[in-house]
Each structure stands twice: as structure tokens, then as C-alpha cells.
Specification:
The protein has 29 helices and 26 strands. The chain is α/β, with parallel strands linked by helices. The chain folds into 6 domains: 127 residues, 3-Layer(aba) Sandwich (Rossmann fold), CATH 3.40.50.2300; 106 residues, Beta-Lactamase; 101 residues, PAS domain (Beta-Lactamase); 181 residues, P-loop containing nucleotide triphosphate hydrolases (Rossmann fold); 79 residues, Helicase, Ruva Protein, domain 3 (Orthogonal Bundle), CATH 1.10.8.60; 59 residues, Arc Repressor Mutant, subunit A, CATH 1.10.10. The strands form 7 sheets. It has a 5-stranded parallel β-sheet, sandwiched between helices. It has a 5-stranded antiparallel β-sheet with strand order 7-6-10-9-8. The radius of gyration is 44 Å and the shape is elongated.
Length: 732
């Protein structure tokens, strides 16, 4: 058991040391070193003694009385005065500080022992009383009734929050001397005063009805329950609870009116009584029907909640789980005890990827958020696609979150497939490009991919996403060149119902769907000026409005741009905003064309063939002989990887042999070339020259297709009917 610590405040060293020696003999721990009032305050704050022995007469600007007053006021430490001066003036001034005892010098050891024990006991009792008082005050603030305390003159010393709200009183009224009689209607004041006198005399009264007056002058009936503070002849005030009985009065009045009316109607017409009974029976039946419907809806909700295959959860405003269904428990391999009443950081050993905390705060702000996240649980990665919506009460206040999640763990394998493929390509130029992408993946900055059409900008954007901290979020792509300005705006930012003709319902844009992930703006150089401006605003504020909407929507999505245009030239020509260009031009990565990375062709052919075989439903992926691959190396590939993919796709469609060689009819351009020389016409018109070139092209196509007109039409990229039309025009 720790010895009580006693701070000795004495400016005479000999007396202080004598007291310390005596205190040790009595079993206490003396604290020395305080010879002034300010030193006593500083040591009390730092050492937190259990008692202070305070000499009244001290040197300095603070004597013992002033120092004791501050010590007790600030720290609640009991103080016992030591003095050799017993004059009336000093003792009267000391009484104002409410000391626990006085000891006159010289001090006898028995008096010292008794005084310290009593003071420590009184100090402990006061601490308990203060704690009890604090608990009482806290409880009073939480009660739904009006709770108050009055002094012996009938003035408020305490009024809880419900009381101030009900009476329309503000806190300052307490300092203005608000009397209990001030809140009572004048006709009831004599009765209220009589009650107050009886309670102050020690009598406890129960259930007295009074009419209270609010600050705005309106009145309401209440029942008060009063009891004296103190006991016997030492009553210090009144403690009371008041209950607003307006509703009870109204019910009583309504009941009385109903009884009177019923009696009158019974006396007048017995038949009407039967009608009333029938109405009552019908109302009871309707109420039971409503109760049954509510019970059925509750049961339906419980059935859907528990039987749904998707994971469903509900959180309160503190983001603690209040409900979780069996599907979620099965996915996480957890029990309800492990989840209910807890937050995500308290449940999961590692944080949930995808900034769920920020997302859910936005949902509590009233926003619907759709995002993807992953969890690492017991060495297993689980990926979820989750929609979170705010839960609202009857006043439209958000009180929690409802989330519906679907497991998308299969998506993790697709991400790994992209990464594995990117790392297989051996060319130095592509590896250098990949290193830049990996550096960019470590940041959340905007990346701009530049390169010719068909070089694989989508693939590298997907690789960037897979290597970033957003890998478990969604990845979306929009081709800005393939859509009109209006359609591109709707696809990118979404639209509200009725925003334009055909907009029958609200639609989320790709920016909103890419929450927590990445959005690739392909061919960003083709954006219209209006969309360039709106995109710039989003990049600056990370918020936007849907088409036809007014509410700002905030999303956390990374933007990646790609284009085959020279944006600097587009800015100079006035077709692209300079401020947007500088905003996008943070990390620029040039993607090499296929002609600069022909070492990658063998692996590229395998990857493309694997994707096409899966897409076309082939039972196995075709193989390619060395001669075929050597033939591919001789081509310059102006269409890059897109051209290679189209060529292999034609090969797979037209050839059933799983092993493809260079003699395939779908690849005549790789086996031999064809040229036509056209000179400036001197004796021919332009139509005659074009007629001659068209004839040569059709003849070459027929030669390569061995006279098969459908194949020849495919080689020229026209329909069979169009090819027949051109062929007929040459014969005419």
C-alpha cells in the first residue's frame, strides 16, 4: 500500500525538516522544498500530493492563504493550515478558503496525527462526493424529463438540457437569477410557493400539477416531484423532476369528450351504438392487418437479408457493424461475435485496401458509393465489389450505412495475368518503357501515354493499374474519339433522370464507377472543348456534377490519359486547352511501335493467339512454326499490335489446322508484295487513272484469292455486294 504523500510548505527550514521527520515516523511520505506560495502551487501540480501542510505566513506575493485557495480550487487537494498567529482577522480570511483543519505551532505529534487522518478522510469523502455529483449531473442531462435544483430562495442552481429546451431558456438565464416562480403561471404561483416552503421545511411532496410558462409566453401543464437537498433542519435547497403532461391532459380531455359524446349518442340512438361497435371492430381489424403486414415485411426483410447470396451488412454512424448476413460471415470465415459492435480496424489484422474509411464517411454524408476492395484473411486474398448507400430516418437524417458486396476473387487472377505477360517481353525498348510505368505506379499522379495507334496503350494502362496500390479497385476505359461530345459526357460523368431525351433513369458515369480504381481516357486528344473544361475542373477539385444534376459528387479515382496525337501541336493549333495539357503532362510515357520491338513478336503472337482462341471458343491454342514467325519479322507493322491481332484473327477464322504456317491465304501481304506505279496524267483524266488503279487492285485480289470473289472482297475490306458492283463497273 502506498504511503500518503504530504507536501510541507514552510519557509523556516528547521521547522520544515522537523515536520518531515515527524511525518516519516507517522508513516507518511513528506515532500519538502516549498518555501513560497508559488512553489507550493508548482509542486502540487507536479507531484499531486494527498495533503498540503500550509504555513499561513510566507514570503513573496502569495501568502499561504492565497496559495491554499488556488491549490484546492485547481487540484482539489485538502489543505491544513500551520500558524503561530491565531488572530481573528487571519482566521476569518483563512475560513474563506474552506481549510480542512488548523494546527497552531508548536505542533504536538498526537494533534498532527489526528488532524492529518481526519483531513485525509474528509478529502477522500469530498472526492467521492464530487464524483457522485458529476455522475448525478451526467444522469440528469441524459434523462428525458426536466430535472432541476433550487437554492433555499427558490432560484435555479441547475437545469438540465431537456429543461432548457422545454422552457426555451438559455444558459445565461442561470446567471441572471432565474427563479422557479418565474416559470410558473401567475395563477399557480401561490400553490408553488406553498410547496417550496413545505419542501424546504424537510417534507417530500409527490405529484403536484402546475402550469409552466415558456420563454415565448406559451404555457404547458406539468407534474413536479420535489425533495429537499439535505436533511432535518439543514435543508440547502430543492431537487425536483418535472414531467410535461400535455399529452396526458389532451388524452384525458379527449377521453372525457368521447365519453360524454358516447353517452349522449347512446341515449339518443341505440342503433348508432351498434354502428360505433362495428367501426371499432373494423378499426381493430385494420390495425391487426397493418401489424400483420409490418410483421410480414419484417420477416421478408429477414428472409432476404439472411438468404441472399450477396454479402450484406449494416453499420451505425460510428462505422460499427450492427447487422451482418450469413453470406458475409461465410466469405470471411467469421462469427457474429467477431464482427458485431466492431469497426473494420478492430476486426481485420491488415487494413482493407481501397480507403474504406474515407468512402464510408462520404456515405454518412449522404452519397452512394460503389467501389472494389480486397482483404487478406488468413493468407487468402478476397476481392469484393461493394455498393454502400446511406440509411435515413423519417427526418431524412443519415444514421448508418447499408452495404451490399459481391466476391470478385477471380479478378485477382486477371490482374496477375496482365503483370506476368508484361514481364515476358524481352526487347530493351519495351523493358525501358515498363520501368517508367513501374515508377509511375508507385505514385497516384496523372500518367499520359503517347504512341501510335495500336501500340498497346490500353495494355500498359492496365499494367500500371495492376502494379499500383489501386490494383484491387476497378479499371475502366473510355475511347473519347469513338463517342459524340454529348454521349462522351454522359458516359464519363453520368446523368440524372430526365437530363435529356431518352434519359429515363439516373446513370452513374465511369468516373463514379472507377471509385478506388483507375480510369483510362483513351484518345484524350479528341475530347471536345466543353469536356476538356469539365475534366480540368474535376482534376482540380476531384468533384463533378452529373449531366442535368446540381449535387457535387466527389470520387477517388486515378485518371490515365492516352493519345496518338502530338498534344503540344494541338495546343498550338488551338484544338486543345493549354491548361489541361499542362495538368495532364505530369508523367509522360512514350510507347514504342511494334517495328522497334520485333524481338517481342514470338511472345506477342502466343499471347494474342491465346486471347483469340478463348474469345473464339477454340478447344486449344494454335501453334506457329519458325517460318511463319520469320515471315512476321519482315513486316514493318504500320498498324502495330492491332494489325498483328487482326492478321492472326483472320488466320484462325480461315484455317482449321492448329499449326499455322506462312502459306495461309489470310496473310498474302506477308508472303509477297504488290506495287502499282502511278504517274502524273498527261493524256488521261483523273477518272481514267482511278479506273485503272481500281482495276489493278481487283485483279490482284482475285489472283491472291485464286478467283474466290468473297475472299477477294475480304482482302480489299469491302462487302461481297460492293465488290461485285465494282467488278461489274469495270466490265461495262
Amino acid at each position: 500500500m502506498n504511503k500518503p504523500k504530504i507536501l510541507v510548505v514552510e519557509d523556516e527550514i528547521i521547522i520544515a525538516e522537523h515536520l518531515a521527520k515527524t511525518l516519516r515516523r507517522l508513516g507518511y511520505t513528506p515532500l519538502l522544498g516549498a518555501s513560497t506560495g508559488r512553489k507550493a502551487i508548482e509542486m502540487s501540480a507536479r507531484m499531486n500530493p494527498d495533503l498540503v501542510l500550509m504555513d499561513i505566513v510566507l514570503e513573496g506575493d502569495l501568502d499561504g492563504i492565497d496559495a491554499a485557495q488556488q491549490i484546492y480550487s485547481l487540484f482539489g487537494i485538502p489543505v491544513v493550515y500551520l500558524t503561530g498567529h491565531g488572530d481573528t482577522v487571519t482566521l476569518s480570511r483563512a475560513k474563506l478558503t474552506e481549510p480542512f483543519a488548523y494546527l497552531l505551532k508548536p505542533i504536538r505529534i498526537q494533534s498532527l496525527r489526528t488532524t492529518i487522518e481526519v483531513a485525509l478522510y474528509k478529502g477522500e469523502m469530498e472526492k467521492k462526493l464530487r464524483a457522485s455529483e458529476a455522475k448525478y449531473r451526467e444522469l440528469a442531462e441524459l434523462l428525458p424529463q426536466l430535472v432541476y435544483e433550487l437554492d433555499e430562495h427558490g432560484y435555479f442552481t441547475f437545469l438540465n438540457r431537456v429543461g432548457m429546451t422545454t422552457l426555451g431558456r438559455i444558459a445565461e438565464d442561470r446567471d441572471k437569477g432565474l427563479s422557479f416562480l418565474h416559470i410558473i403561471e401567475e395563477s399557480d404561483r401561490d400553490a408553488a410557493l406553498l410547496v417550496m416552503k413545505r419542501v424546504l421545511s424537510g417534507e417530500a411532496l409527490v405529484e403536484q400539477e402546475l402550469t409552466a410558462v415558456k420563454k415565448d409566453g406559451t404555457t404547458f401543464p406539468m407534474v413536479t416531484y420535489n425533495t429537499p437537498i439535505g436533511a432535518g433542519g439543514n435543508v440547502l435547497g430543492i431537487r425536483g423532476v418535472a414531467v410535461d403532461i400535455t399529452e396526458r391532459r389532451e388524452m384525458q380531455d379527449a377521453l372525457q369528450r368521447a365519453n360524454a359524446d358516447l353517452e349522449r349518442r347512446v341515449a339518443e340512438r341505440t342503433v348508432e351504438l351498434y354502428q360505433v361497435n362495428e367501426n371499432l371492430i373494423r378499426e381493430i381489424h385494420e390495425r391487426k392487418s397493418v401489424e400483420n403486414e409490418l410483421r410480414a415485411r419484417e420477416e421478408m426483410f429477414r428472409t432476404v437479408f439472411e438468404g441472399a447470396q450477396d454479402c450484406i451488412f449494416i453499420k451505425d454512424e460510428n462505422l460499427r457493424y450492427t447487422h451482418v448476413n450469413q453470406a458475409l460471415l461465410d466469405s470471411l470465415k467469421m462469427s457474429t461475435d467477431q464482427m458485431l459492435g466492431k469497426t473494420d480496424p478492430e476486426i481485420f489484422e491488415t487494413a482493407c485496401e481501397g480507403n474504406t474509411g474515407d468512402l464510408e464517411l462520404r456515405v454518412l454524408g449522404g452519397q452512394v458509393v460503389e467501389a472494389q476492395h480486397s482483404l487478406d484473411i488468413r493468407g487468402m486474398t478476397i476481392v469484393f465489389h461493394c455498393v454502400r448507400v446511406p440509411m435515413r430516418d423519417a427526418q431524412d437524417n443519415v444514421w448508418g450505412i447499408c452495404g451490399i458486396a459481391r466476391e470478385l476473387t477471380q479478378r485477382k487472377r486477371n490482374v496477375n495475368r496482365t503483370v506476368d505477360r508484361a514481364l515476358r517481353y524481352p526487347s530493351r525498348v519495351f523493358k525501358d518503357c515498363l520501368e517508367h510505368v513501374q515508377l509511375a505506379a508507385g505514385t497516384d499522379s496523372i500518367v499520359l501515354f503517347l504512341g501510335e495507334s495500336g501500340t498497346g496503350k490500353d495494355f500498359l494502362a492496365a499494367y500500371l493499374h495492376a502494379q499500383s496500390k489501386r490494383a484491387n479497385g476497378p479499371f475502366f476505359t473510355i475511347n473519347c474519339a469513338a463517342l459524340t461530345s454529348e454521349l462522351a459526357e454522359s458516359e464519363l460523368f453520368g446523368h440524372e433522370s430526365g437530363a435529356f431525351t431518352g434519359a429515363n433513369r439516373r446513370k452513374k458515369g465511369l468516373l463514379e464507377l472507377a471509385e478506388g480504381g483507375t480510369l483510362l481516357l483513351n484518345e484524350i486528344g479528341d475530347l471536345s472543348p466543353h469536356l476538356q473544361s469539365k475534366l480540368l475542373t474535376f482534376l482540380d477539385t476531384r468533384s463533378f456534377t452529373r449531366v442535368g444534376g446540381e449535387k457535387l459528387i466527389t470520387v477517388n479515382a486515378r485518371l490515365v490519359g492516352a493519345t496518338n496525337r502530338d498534344l503540344a501541336e494541338e495546343v498550338s493549333a488551338g484544338r486543345f486547352r493549354a491548361d489541361l495539357y499542362y495538368r495532364l503532362n505530369v508523367l509522360t510515357i512514350r510507347i514504342p511501335p511494334l517495328r522497334e520491338r520485333k524481338e517481342d513478336l514470338p511472345i506477342l503472337v502466343e499471347d494474342v493467339a491465346e486471347d483469340l482462341a478463348e474469345q473464339l471458343g477454340l478447344k486449344r491454342t494454335p501453334t506457329f512454326d519458325e517460318e511463319y514467325l520469320s515471315t512476321l519479322q519482315t513486316h514493318d507493322w504500320p498498324g502495330n499490335i492491332r494489325e498483328l491481332r487482326n492478321l492472326i484473327e483472320r488466320s484462325l477464322i480461315l484455317k482449321t489446322d492448329p499449326r499455322l504456317g506462312p502459306d495461309l491465304q489470310a496473310e498474302p501481304s506477308l508472303r509477297r508484295t504488290w506495287n502499282v506505279k502511278v504517274e502524273f496524267p498527261e493524256n488521261e483524266s483523273l477518272n481514267e487513272v482511278m479506273h485503272s488503279v481500281k482495276k489493278d487492285l481487283i485483279e490482284e485480289a482475285l489472283r491472291r484469292s485464286e478467283g474466290n470473289q468473297k475472299v477477294a472482297a475480304g482482302l480489299l475490306g469491302v462487302t461481297y455486294d460492293s465488290f461485285r458492283h465494282h467488278l461489274k463497273s469495270l466490265e461495262d
